[in-house]
Amino acid sequence: MKPEEKIKIITKFLKIFFWVLFISFCALYISQATGYYEYELHKKVIFTEEQIKKFENDVKNGANIDINDYLKNQNKYYQNNTSKLGLNISNFIGKNVKNGIKKTFEALSKLIEE
Questions:
Q1: pTM higher than 0.90, yes or no?
Q2: Left if phi > 0, otherwise alpha if psi is -120 to 50, otherwise beta: which for 18?
């Protein structure tokens, strides 16, 4: 392989790599800027406060108290066969992309060493 071809391959790979990094950065920045993580934490705080109020009311009313009743999250479980399939496909793709990137870097390091 000619040196010019190696340089073209490396340049093309680096452009793609930096675009992926840029898009990932933008996605993370937008999620941080919109307060997604803070919103998730806020939902947990609200849930905890509701459970504390429920516990205090049960203590006032003299109801039978079981700690497990207050630790359960009342969110519904939405997983079904379609979502399981999507998760399996996602895991498969992620594993193969990871291996592909690893092999690409190994090949690039061999090209650079030559």
A1: no
A2: alpha
